Amino acid sequence: RQRRLRELVSRPTLTRNGVAIDLLANLELPEDVRTAKANGAAGVGLYRTEFLYMNRDDLPDEEEHLANYAEMIAGLDGIPITIRTLDLGVEKGCEAFVRCGSNACNPALGLRAIRLCLKEPELFRPQLRAILRASALGPVRLMLPLVTNVHEVDTVLALIVQLKHQLDREGLRYDPALPVGAMIEVPAAALAARAIAHRMDFLSIGTNDLIQYTLAIDRLDDAVNYLFDPTHPAILRLIRMTIEAGRALNIPVSMCGEMAGDPRFTRLLLGLGLREFSMQPGALLDIKEIVLDADSRELQRRTAQLFDLLDETDPSHLLEALNQA
Ligand code: PEP
Ligand code: MG
Q1: Is 256 a catalytic residue?
Q2: Which of 68, 45, 75, 213 is nearest to 126 (CA)?
Q3: Complex ipTM above 0.90?
Q4: 48 lines ligand 1 (CB under 6 A)
């Protein structure tokens, strides 16, 4: 089976009915680039930059960020990379985060990710400047974690304009059209996806947090992980809303939570209209095998039918129905 999967690496990722699907990689460390490329990733849909802040008591400066992004871009040979700005908090806490004064008793609902970055511009600016400068070196997209409202988005966009002027004055290059996107991983953001989509170049659904926040289950608490259910009707509706917001506003929507790399959900997500999947590199070929064999039109028709019955049937039946050959 491994050999059969390896043979898929060079095949274009098209469904049986000829729809192109982007299968992208989630990277956490620079060395993940090799696995991503070996498994034929079309790009990086999520580069988590938290490791740059871990196990140290100072903060990375702009040059350190830039050197790291430049190395990644060089290693990727022209495929695009989506760099996510710092998402520190809860399970990803580090010295820098602690110094920023978070002693919240419920950190998942506290000053995390974009919230922390907007409160601490000195933490945020060097990374934003470095991502802008990296965009002169290859195809880069910038992605914001844990967006909750349009005010956050507008604040970041204004900051980016300001930093572009600064770089102009310093004679430093960047891609003036650097795409900026938001992760949709807070239920409020999914419900307001159209408003966010109006301002963004792309959206990416973070199901790990979307499920945590929608179902009110701490993703780190084993006592409640039996409730973790990507097929809960509430989750499916939020995913569908987000994909539809992207379609209505004509911007791409990807998914970079674990759900995108889980073969049980590939046909369902194709049926919901998802066309970009980002996952841990080890899952790329398993998902590709399913995509190559799928008829997206048929899946969309059947998913729409099943959605009409969402409140009357057990969601696991919906999956079974879609996953039958
Ligand atoms: C997510 O929440 O689904 C996600 C991709 O981000 P992280 O797992 O890094 O929070
Ligand atoms: Mg997340």
Answers
A1: yes
A2: 68
A3: yes
A4: yes
